[in-house]
Fold this protein.
Amino acid sequence: MLSRLALPAILLLAAGLRIWRLDQNGFGNEYYTAGVRSMSQSWRNFLYHSFDPAGFVSVDKPPLAAWIQVASVKLFGFHGWSVLLPQVFEGVAAVWLVHHLVGRRFGHGAGSLAALVLALTPVSVAVDRSSNTESCLVLVLLFAAWALLKAAEDGSRRFLLLAVALVGLAFNVKMLAAFVVLPAFALVYLLGTPFVWRRRLVDAALAAVVLATVSLSWVLVYDLTPAHQRPYAGTTDTNSVLELAVGPYGIGRFVRQVRPAVAAGVEGRADLRDRARLTAAAERTAEAGPRTGFARVFVRAPAGPLRLADGQLAGQVGWLLPLALIGLAMATLREPWRRPLAATHLSLILWCAWALTYAVVYSGAGGTFHFYYMSTLAPPLAALAGVGVVSLWRAYVGGGWRSVVLPTALVLTAVWQLYVDAHALGGVRDLTGDVAALKTVSGTWRSWLHLALVGGALVAAMTLLVVVAWTARALRAIAGPALAIGLLTLLVLPTAWALSSVLVPGPSVLPAADLGRLLPEYNDGRARRILDPDGLSRLIAFLEAHRRGERYLLATSSATLAAPIIVQTGAAVMARGGFHGLDPILTPDKLARLVEAGEVRFVMLNDLSLVSRRLGAEAAGQPIADWVRANGTPVDPALWRTSRRSAMTLYDLRPALGLIRAPTPSAS
C-alpha cells in the first residue's frame, strides 16, 4: 500500500514546491515573457520568436519552449501564472519520468528515491518556478533518453530515430546545450545493440540525418527568410540564427567573445580600457571573501576540474554526490558485465555518461555560464542517487565487508554537505581544504540544520554498524528505519536550499537556489530594477499620453527597460541594441528615417544595466546616442520620472508635437 502511495506523494511534493507562492515571482524573466506576449499577438511573431510586438528583434533562443507558454497564455489569458505554469508541469512531469526510467530496471524503491531527489533538487525547483527554458529542455531530453533505452534494449532503429528527433526538438529549446547528451546516447546504442558494426554505422548515419533535419528546421526557415520580412536575429552580429548557435551558444560557452560592435567602439578609448581593468580587478578581489548581495547571482568559480566543487554550484544539484558515486560502484559489481549488456548496465552507462559529459562541459566553460545551467545535471544525478541507495542497501543486507559501505557512505555524504553549505556561504577559503573552518552560524535555525544533519547521519551509521551481526529479522526491524532516518537527514540541507526559491523570490533573469537569500548578512541577491514600479507606471502613462500614431511607444538601448514595458502594455517598444544593447541593428541613418516616417518619437538614453555596460554596450551604442543628443530635445524629468536619482534621459525627436504633463497612474 505504501509503495503505491509513494509516487503520488512525491509528485504532490514536487508540485507543491513549484506552485506554492508562485505569484511572488510575477512574470518571471521579463525578457522571455515580453517575447511570449509579443508572440501571442500575431502568427509572424509566433513563428520568428519576436521579442517585441513590432517584430524588430527576436529573442535569443529557439521558440519551442516559448510556443508552449504562448499556448498557455492563449488558453488562460496573459497573466504571470499562465506564463510560469508550463514550467511547473514540465518539472513535475520530469519527476514522474525519472521515476519510470529508473524504476523499470532497478525497482520501485530506486525509482521513488530518484524521483524524490529530483523533486527536492534546489536548482530544479528554482528553474521550474521561472519562465526560463531549462524545464522544457530537461523534459524533452528525458523523453529522448526513454526512446534511446528502448532502442538499445530492443535493437530498434525506429526508437533510435525517435530519440535523436527528440534531441533535435531539444535543440530548438536551447540549441547546443541539448547536444551535450549525444556522446552518452551514442555510447549506449553502440554498446547495447547486438548488431554487426555495419548495421550500427548505417543506423548512426540515419540518426545523424534525422538529427540535423529536425535541429536545423527552424534555423533554416528563419535564416532563409529575407531579413526585411522577419525580426533581426537577437544577440548576433550577422543577423543569423545559425551564428547564434555556433557563436554565443557554441564557442561562446567556452571562450569569452568580443562583439565587433564593442571592439570598434572601444578601440582607442583609454577610459573604457581602464574601466575594464578596474572591473576585472574588483572581480578578482571579490573572490577573496564571501560574496554577498547581487554578486551571488553570478558564477565566479574559475573554469577547471574543480569548478563544480564550488559551494554555490554544488549546492544547486550535488548534495548526494558521494552517496551516488559509492552506490554506483556497488551497482556495477552486483552482476558481471558481458555482451550483450544487461538492461541495467545500459541504464547505468546512460546516467553516468550523461552526468559526465555535462560536468566536463560545465567545468571547461570559460564563456557564459550561470547557475541554472546545472539543472541539466539534476536528472542523471537523481537517478544515480536512487540506484546507489538501493545498491548499497542490497550490499548491506548481503553481509560481509560490503556491509560497512552503506554507513560509511552516509557519513561521507554528511561531511560533503557540510562542506558545500559552508563553502557556499563563505566558510571555506579555498577548494584544497587547507582552511576548512566553518563560518559562524547565522541564527539558530541554520545551526539546527547542521545538528540534524550530523546527528542523524551518525545515529543512522552507528545503528547500521551495530546490527550487522544480528539476525535477518532484527535487520529488517532496525536497519530499515535507520537507513530511512539517515536518508531523511541527508535531505535536510537540499530541502532548505530548495525552499530558498519558494520563501524568497530570487533573481528572475538568473534563477538559482541560494540559502544565503534567507540570511540577512547576504541580502536577497536580487537585481535592482532601473525603474521601480511607480516610476515605470509614470513613464508608461507619459508615453501613452503623447503617442501620436507612432509605431513604437519608445526606443530603448536594450531589452532591460523594453521588456517590462512590453509586459505591462503589450505595445511595441524598440530594443535598438537587442538583449544587452550590443546588436548592430540600428544606425543613425536608419533611426533618422524612422523618425521622419513618424514611427519613432521618444528615445531613452543611459538606460543600460550594469552588466550591459560592463560588456561594452555603452561604447557599441555611442553613435546612436550622439545622434539622439544632437537631434532630440531632453524631456523634463518631472513629466515622466518619480525619482531624481535615475541617470536615464528621455529625448523627444518630434518636439514640435508638444508635451503635456502625464496623468498620474491609477492605484490599480
